[in-house]
Amino acid sequence: MAYRHYVLVLLLLVYIHCLLSRVLPAFLVAVPTPGCHESCAGTTSVPLCHQRSGWTYLAGRVNERQNRCQECRARVGAYAEGASADGNWFNMRDGACIGHGQYGILMGYGFALPFVLGSLVTARAVDVVDRRCVLAAAVAVWSGASAIMAGVSSFRPLLFSRFLLGAAESFVVPASFSLVTDYFEEHSQGSAGSVLSAGVCVGAGAASWAVPLALHVGWRMSCLLVGGAGMLLAALVALTVHEPARDQEQMRKMGGAAVGGAVVWILTAASSLRLAASYTIAAFLPIYYLRSGLPGYSASTYAAANAALVAVSGLLSAVIGGIAADRLSTRLASAPSAIAAAANLLAMFLYFGVFGARTFAASLLFFGCALLVGECWYGLMLVQVKRAVPQAVQGQSITLVLSVATIVSNAGPAAAGLLDPGDAGVGGVVARTVALGTGAAAVLFALAAW
Predict the structure, then answer these.
(1) Fold that domain 256-449 belongs to in CATH
(2) What GO molecular function annotations does the UniProt record carry, in alphabetical order (predicted)?
């Protein structure tokens, strides 16, 4: 294996860890307390917050079933004798005292706003500084933020850790893709970029395993393990990746150049809509499965299937899309955008099947096919952005696209949440939201190709 391929694999691992760290809380708040399924099925609950009684219920509502669920998870009363650790040990929501509204802040704009603020620095820094050192420092900071979560017991310090994580992760995409541009020739950059972008799906899929991990070691140790793995990656980046030489004269000339342009802004709009669809599906698909009770569904089956489908289908989609873009680019410079347009159009119809299927297995089959067809778009978009601007400002351009898209796309889950009817009908809401995002993105990618 050539050295450049080693760098690509290492950058892929960094990207996987980046996404895993970002979505980790989404799975740590979903860890069940062993032995409490029957007591908690079909009822609402509130965070334990290390209390053994006197919990404040939503809107003052309280009933015997809620009390049984709370007492089972807290291991008090009839559930105390011979019980294992309580919900505070297994579940981040209980142990860190995260309310419903607070969770939305943590996973949404609690990450997005510092990400964009960090991008203001990234936009100017990534094209002029040592990217190896910047990337290693960023990995170390977000890994430290993940480890910090292990010691918190309230919302504010948890929000602080998410702030650090969001700011640090704003560096990973511009720095990584800029390094790939320097390490790989133009005819293979599409394939290399698509392999790197597969880290989005692989990281999101790998995060599913946080649930069984927390059942064995607790949510706090899970955070420490994720943070520790990131520190090792940061050391490998700092010690083994070499910073390629760059044309300093060209960088000085282009340092003040505009990074916009019609194609870049069209790609920004397309990415915003497509990410809105992706974030909506990620936030509400587990809720839909839980409420719909499709034949064959169970939480453990979904966790394993989601990890496999998202990782394998996403990786294959990225690799196949990148190879296709490299081969077609000799005849059509806008091949990445054209492929992304076709992929999103096909994925739109497949996502309707996810919510229209009458069995869990059939729904998962549609989901896997939608990922296999559609998830190539991200790497293709980044390749197209790099081709649309001078090399000296590629990092700034990518940062611009991702910053705008991150802010805009968070409106997708927010809109779906406002329209959520509270039952299995959420599937129709999500299907329409995802169809709008993927369909409109397909039109915009086609416009960029044209």
Answers:
(1) Growth Hormone; Chain: A; (1.20.1250)
(2) transmembrane transporter activity
Note whether 361 and 298 are within 8 A (CB).
Answer: no
pTM for the model stands at 0.77
Q: Could you report the per-residue pLDDT of 263-278, keeping only the tens digit for each?
A: 888 999 999 999 889 8
Task: For residue 151, give both structure tokens.
Answer: 């010691």
What tens digit of pLDDT does each residue of 320-377 get?
Answer: 887 887 787 777 778 888 899 999 999 999 999 999 999 999 999 999 999 999 888 8
Could you give the CA distance from residue 243 to residue 240 in angstroms, rounded to a whole number?
Answer: 10
Instruction: Report pLDDT digits (tens) over 35-84.
Output: 887 777 666 677 888 877 766 655 555 567 778 888 888 888 667 666 67
- Contact (CB, 8 A) for 217 and 201: no
Tokens in use for 247?
A: 């044309």
Q: How many CA atoms lie within 13 A of 13 on its CB side?
A: 16
Domain boundaries, the chain: 1-35+84-245, 256-449
DSSP code per residue over 147-165: HHGGG--SHHHHHHHHHHH
Calculate the dihedral angle through the C-alpha atoms of 248, 253, 254, 258, rounding to the nearest 10 degrees. 160
Second CATH level (architecture) for the domain 1-35+84-245: Up-down Bundle (1.20)
* Residues 6 or more apart whose Cβ sits within 8 Å of residue 106: 25, 98, 155, 158, 159, 162
